[in-house]
Amino acid sequence: MSPLVITILIVSGIGLLIIIAYINHMVENNKLEKARIKADLNDRLRRSTDLAETLPGQLMTPALKLLLSRLQLHFSERMLLLEKGNNTLKARIEELRKLIAQGESIVVNNPPQPILNEAKAKDVRYQLENLHGQLTRCAKEGIIPSSDAKHWLQEVRHMLTQVHIEFFGNLGQQALQKNQPGQARLAFERGVQYLRKQPDPAPYQTTLKKFQEQLARANALVLETSNTDAEQTSELDAGLESLDGDDEWKKNNIYD
């Protein structure tokens, strides 16, 4: 075998190895990209489903339920392209299509969840932040028309305000029930301040007025409690002075 043939064979072998390595690299990259897309779709589908099922009933509307169902359908259909044999996913897609076909008549089964403490308020706020993030990304990707996204982002801000209103109101009422007017005053005062800081306070004027009335009531109770404490302190001082006088009288009798 001539040196030329040997050289050609070596070069061909090296070229073949490079081609095989490149193909393997491309296959591996495609696998990684497919896995990344699946993980992302799974995450977005999970988030949309959690919001649809667990958002407090006082915040969930048929329109929002319908929107979240459409997002779930979108992500599920994209997932099915990657998992064509997933029968569970196929059944879920059919279920979502039936729900969406109901339009504004879609049933909302989310139970109300009273915002009674800071932990619950933070939990619901996290849900709304999650919803905000989902809507923003869907708008950027063209999944939701920009006009619809703008409307829903405003709705999310309104829902967040509702959460604060309910939280401060419940906090104040609980404090009054526990005979803690000072804590109640603080809660209602925070409610007033929060509503006054809203970019558009007009829709909340009725609630603001109610908070102001509750704040005035809590203030009156605080003053009443302070006056009662002061009277009790004065009576106690007078009693102590009287006792001190009796002691002096006793001392005088002893030493006389």
UniProtKB/TrEMBL annotation:
Membrane-spanning segments: 6-27
Sorted UniProt keywords: Coiled coil, Membrane, Transmembrane, Transmembrane helix
Coiled coil listed as a keyword: yes
Compositionally biased spans, kind Polar residues: 226-235
Residue ranges of the region described as Disordered: 226-256
Coiled-coil annotated spans: 79-106
Domain of life, source organism: Bacteria
Name listed for the protein in its UniProt record: Uncharacterized protein
Origin species: Pseudomonas guineae
Taxonomic lineage: Bacteria, Pseudomonadati, Pseudomonadota, Gammaproteobacteria, Pseudomonadales
